[in-house]
Amino acid sequence: MEWTVQELADRAGVSGRTLRHYHQIGLLTPDRIGANGYRYYGPTAVARLQRILLLREAGLSLAAISEALASGANPDDEINALEGHLAHLEHEKEALGLRIASVEHTLAMRREGRQPRMDMMLEGFNDRYEAEVTEQWGRDVFEQSNRWWGA
Questions:
Q1: CA angle 73, 79, 85 (to 5 degrees)
Q2: pTM beyond 0.85
Q3: Mean of the per-residue pLDDT values for the chain?
Q4: What totals of helices (H) and strands (E) does the chain contain, helices first?
Q5: How do 39-41 and 32-33 pair as beta strands?
Q6: Could you report the per-residue pLDDT of 28-59, keeping only the tens digit for each?
Q7: What is the CA radius of gyration of the chain?
């Protein structure tokens, strides 16, 4: 299976211009270029684009991304990096879920003409010590503490 620039751009949420720029600077080369001049991207290029987008989301510059991808990381390094990023995304998903529940609670209470619970209105917004507690004592301790505090 192969995708054209536009097909890949649509699926990745980037512009075709971005993909052509990545090709121009050597960051993402298509698997092949057809006789019609179209660029075609297969699984290898899509996997590389995934890494580019993850690194870009992490705030790296295109030059830094190029350097990181050129280092020829072994498959174990890639797996470790993806696992780390997945854990980070799961954490963000959980925090976003708490914020959504908080806003839903506030909205429901307002619609009923009632005062929302103050502790619920800030659920998921103030976990500034989370990284420190999780690193030092583990995720379970942090979650137990949050449950205790919320109760």
A1: 105
A2: no
A3: 83
A4: 8, 3
A5: antiparallel
A6: 999 999 999 999 999 989 989 998 998 888 77
A7: 22
